[in-house]
């Protein structure tokens, strides 16, 4: 692949990563099929159509494995801990698994949607819960227009380089906006089928790539230096561990769709663990093979301008130029699946808050035919349209001016909510009759401290998420605290002036 192609498609040294994915909350009566309705008669319960397998697919889609490998691993490899990168993924996997222990325990207790917001409200109280809701709304809603601008930019460069079609990036963003908006209005099972196809293609491509390298290199594909724990402390371990954590954003997504799961008490936990296992093994092995493909002694000598070209050059060298072109094209579908997943997440947060009356109740309406959160989905689409077309009008760069910045901010917001959720687990199960020391105390506390370290690295090294060296841009994580404070302030207002709505936050009633 030509360097200018990769540079323009957005595979750059400071590439950010996509994140997370969550939402929906239904009253337990609605979840059980009681058929509660809003005043206008429209249903508030979403149909249960997702199996454990499809839940796991949504989780993996949010993680965007192909984009993660091509966009994140090279940056973590060169600017992080070098040959010890696989061990950074071990650290991230262990902390994420510890988080999942308490998170999954919560999912068996609270089977309605809302994920972070719901769990934090149950464990730390409705005031903190609405504070977390503010963070969630900002993080996910802003991720979507950032994702559209990034996707439009990738489509522009791909169609220009491969087909000679030259259109403004916003045209491609609008095309993707129409398609994803349509999917968002349909039942979630419809999106699941589309995402499944994309994920299968991604994994097949990456597994083929790994297999070819192992076949060509033999045992040299797995250098012993990658397992040297002392290597993890060399270079910039904070950058490596931070970027490894970003490859797990979306891992909690299954709980967001618990209201639409066929058996949420079992399938949410199972889907989460399945996704962690698959993603953990996948990134560990792929990063290890990458070190072998480059050569352990050559990693630190890679010029900064070539960081984004690492996988394309490996593909050209060990596979073929045609396969490199296929990967370039698959990056577009990978990002499409991520934006679709995050759109569904953002819509379900608004749906939950609308149904409880914390936001306009119209957002809590479910489509009478498709059973989708149609009003909330349309709202996310409108916000995204205004933001990315506004960015185009102002002449902002679709990747560096909006895309990576929005994705990086969402990453910080997700880490923050994960840490709060770990504390919520400990608090919620403190007096629970079936409290288990490991599941409800030790694992969540260990996860909390691990996530605090990751959050520190995220704020300190925000330029590796935002793709910008602008000091103003890299102070944007302060916005997460502002959103938290705004949510808390709104909760205090509700408690004083709208006590019935405030009570519904904790009681899960509207």
Structural overview:
The protein has 510 residues and is mainly α. The chain has helices at 3-9, 28-31, 52-63, 65-71, 73-81, 85-109, 116-124, 126-163, 169-185, 188-217, 237-246, 264-294, 310-318, 321-355, 374-393, 398-428, 437-460, 463-466, 478-497, 499-507. Helix 3 packs across helix 10 (188-217), helix 13 (310-318) crosses helix 14 (321-355) and helix 16 packs antiparallel against helix 17. It is globular, with a radius of gyration of 22 Å. It starts with a helix and ends with a helix.
**Low-pLDDT residue intervals, each spanning 5 or more residues:** 1-41
Q: Round the Cα radius of gyration to an integer and report it.
A: 22 Å
SS element count, helices? 20
Proportion of strand residues: under 5%
Structural class by secondary-structure content: mainly alpha
Helical coverage, percent range? 55-70%
- Shape descriptor: globular
Mean pLDDT: 82
**Care to count the β-strands?**
0
SSE sequence, one letter per element: HHHHHHHHHHHHHHHHHHHH
Euclidean distance between termini CA atoms: 55 Å
Structure described in brief:
By secondary structure, this protein is mostly helical. It is built from 20 helices and no strands.
Brief descriptors of the model:
single chain, 510 residues, mainly alpha, globular, disordered N terminus
Topology:
Blueprint lengths: L2 H7 L18 H4 L20 H12 L1 H7 L1 H9 L3 H25 L6 H9 L1 H38 L5 H17 L2 H30 L19 H10 L17 H31 L15 H9 L2 H35 L18 H20 L4 H31 L8 H24 L2 H4 L11 H20 L1 H9 L3
């Amino acid at each position: 692949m030509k360097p200018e192609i990769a540079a323009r498609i957005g595979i750059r040294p400071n590439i950010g990563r996509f994140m997370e994915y969550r939402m929906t909350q239904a009253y337990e009566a609605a979840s059980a099929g009681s058929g509660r309705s809003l005043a206008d008669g429209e249903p508030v319960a979403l149909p249960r159509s997702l199996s454990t397998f499809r839940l796991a697919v949504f989780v993996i889609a949010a993680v965007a494995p192909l984009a993660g490998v091509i966009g994140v691993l090279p940056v973590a490899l060169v600017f992080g801990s070098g040959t010890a990168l696989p061990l950074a993924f071990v650290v991230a996997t262990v902390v994420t698994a510890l988080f999942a222990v308490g998170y999954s325990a919560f999912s068996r207790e609270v089977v309605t949607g809302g994920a972070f917001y719901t769990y934090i409200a149950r464990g730390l109280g409705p005031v903190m819960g609405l504070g977390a809701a503010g963070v969630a709304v900002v993080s996910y809603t802003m991720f979507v227009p950032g994702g559209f601008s990034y996707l439009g930019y990738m489509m522009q460069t791909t169609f220009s380089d491969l087909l000679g079609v030259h259109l403004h990036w916003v045209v491609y963003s609008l095309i993707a906006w129409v398609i994803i908006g349509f999917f968002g209005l349909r039942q979630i099972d419809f999106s699941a089928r589309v995402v499944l196809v994309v994920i299968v293609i991604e994994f097949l491509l990456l597994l083929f790539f790994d297999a070819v390298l192992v076949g060509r290199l033999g045992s040299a594909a797995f250098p012993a230096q990658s397992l040297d724990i002392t290597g993890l402390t060399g270079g910039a371990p904070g950058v490596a561990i931070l970027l490894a954590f970003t490859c797990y954003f979306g891992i909690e997504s299954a709980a967001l769709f618990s209201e639409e799961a066929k058996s949420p008490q079992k399938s949410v936990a199972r889907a989460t663990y399945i996704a962690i296992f698959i993603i953990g093994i996948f990134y560990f092995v792929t990063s290890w093979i990458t070190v072998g493909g480059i050569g352990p002694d050559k990693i630190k000598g890679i010029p900064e301008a070539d960081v984004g070209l690492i996988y394309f050059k490996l593909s050209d060298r060990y596979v073929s130029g045609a396969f490199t072109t296929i990967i370039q094209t698959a990056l577009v579908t990978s990002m499409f699946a991520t934006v679709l997943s995050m759109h569904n997440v953002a819509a379900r947060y608004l749906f939950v808050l609308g149904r409880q009356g914390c936001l306009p109740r119209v957002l809590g309406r479910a489509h009478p035919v498709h059973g989708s959160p149609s009003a909330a989905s349309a709202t996310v689409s409108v916000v995204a349209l205004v933001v990315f077309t506004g960015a185009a009008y102002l002449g902002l760069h679709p990747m560096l001016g909006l895309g990576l910045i929005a994705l990086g901010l969402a990453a910080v917001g997700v880490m923050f909510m994960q840490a709060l959720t770990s504390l919520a687990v400990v608090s919620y199960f403190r007096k629970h009759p079936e409290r288990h020391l490991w599941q409800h105390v030790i694992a969540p506390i260990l996860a909390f401290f691990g996530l605090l370290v990751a959050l520190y690295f995220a704020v300190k090294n925000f330029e590796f998420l935002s793709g910008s060296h602008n000091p103003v841009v890299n102070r944007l994580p302060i916005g997460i605290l502002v959103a938290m404070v705004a949510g808390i302030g709104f909760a205090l207002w509700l408690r004083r002036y709208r006590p019935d709505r405030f009570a519904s936050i904790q009681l899960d009633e509207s």
